[in-house]
Amino acid sequence: MTTKSLPRIDGPLHTHLYIDGIWRSGESRRRLPIINPSTEETIAEIEAGSATDVDTAVRAAAQAFRSWKKTTGAERAALLRAIARGVEAQRSDLATLQSRNNGKPLAEAQIDVCDVVATFDYYAGLAEQLDETGESTVALPCDDYRAVIRREPAGVVGLIVPWNFPMVTTAWKLAPALAAGCTVVLKPSEVTPLPELALAAIAAEAGVPCGVLNVVTGTGVDVGAPLVAHPLVSKVSFTGSTGIGEQVMKTAATTIKGVSLELGGKSSIVVFADADLDLAVELVASGGFFNAGQMCSATSRVLVERPIAEALIARLAERVTQLVVGDPFMPGVQMGPLTNRAQYERVQRYIAQGKADGARKVIEGTVPAGRGHFVKPTIFVDVRADSAVWREEIFGPVLCLRAFDTEDEAVGIANDTEYGLVATVVTGDTARQKRVADALEAGVVWVNAPQVIFPQTAWGGYKRSSIGRELGPFGLAAFQEIKQVLTAAGTA
Ligand code: NAD
């Protein structure tokens, strides 16, 4: 197949592997179709990378590491800022590409692009600080020795990302990895590689040296697994499903390499009777239907204090039935399709299961007729606690709602999951805000706030949701080794 007959998409389109500064075909000569989830049309074909391509990319990254690790923080900061400016300059094309490939409404794609810019700018600042803070003296209990602690780049790192926030999950890894002085082999999702390939082109234009950033597209089996297993890769940072995260950890164990994992979630929004009801409706809807619910942080369990339960259900029913689902480029559209066919089918199975499990009430929205992976926004009221829809991550626009009577009961239900990524609390009582935030087993707690994420903070969760934290100084530390240098006094 050739890309010539495919419909044009805005801006230059990159579909080749990017290795050692060169756009090249994969060794297998096979290509994979990229589908627009709103129309189900093929919009591009990308290289199906292989273990051989991974090896070429890792070796290029290892070679580049020799000089990249010697650059100053200020030099790396200048490149990170140049990437941020490059993304800004292509803001509109990148948002369009994100919407075409992933299906999210254009307004949401624009938020993603802003997030990428903010992340590169933030880590440029931390890279600069490394020139001052990268080496620090340690106070010792005697004068016979002098000890310094150095923060050094981990080496060649493998970055593996999913399809729900392409570019954003990548920026959260790529910016700190480059800031730390690591070189990178990036494996985007085979479902949404186009925004990542565009980002690589921006990095190349910004002057990132050959071999410092390499992108190998393809499947998890053909590209992801060999990347994790490669002996020259020092560290793997993975975002994706918990099941694949487990496999990544096992494979990484065979070469004793470090892993950072950002995995699934089954998070709660807890609405107390003293909450502002308008705000609660807003936060429940955005926590469940933003990005068509394809968020690791989706607050897919809605816990509401009994006295306001019926009022909240009525308001949510109104909201869901009015939610405009459709093509992300149509004005007024609030929710797009699911990003790929497999996910669409998976979510439909969960909805059928929820119905079979006998919820007291099922609230459903509407979807446009015709092609596209559109799923009705759905709320199950009072579904059984042992139902799969209540216990498992659905990763679609499906919420389950239950009423509670006491604060302790609400916290107990929210914590009764194998995951611990995020939680939202909606209450006007300041003492309760603190109590509940303290009691929730989650890496992020939003109090009366939407799911805003600042690169300065931290991202990750408890239990089976994560290992390590992204963003903030933690995100940088994930790509650093610590070295102690102890020198006998009077010999230096
Ligand atoms: P996935 O686990 O199927 O795939 C993620 C990435 O891993 C893809 O690039 C895939 O090709 C690759 N992969 C697949 N098999 C592999 C293997 N054996 N070795 C190495 N790499 C392999 O996940 P997905 O369906 O793309 O994304 C959805 C999942 O991601 C959800 O579970 C969601 O909760 C999670 N997620 C988590 C966060 C977070 O920050 N915690 C953020 C976004 C998504």
TrEMBL record:
Protein keywords: NAD, Oxidoreductase
Gene3D superfamilies reported for this sequence: Aldehyde Dehydrogenase, Chain A, domain 1, Aldehyde Dehydrogenase, Chain A, domain 2
Pathway info: Amine and polyamine biosynthesis; betaine biosynthesis via choline pathway; betaine from betaine aldehyde: step 1/1
Residues in Aldehyde dehydrogenase domain copies: 23-485
Family statement: Belongs to the aldehyde dehydrogenase family.
Name by which UniProt lists this protein: Aldehyde dehydrogenase family protein
Organism this protein belongs to: Paraburkholderia bengalensis
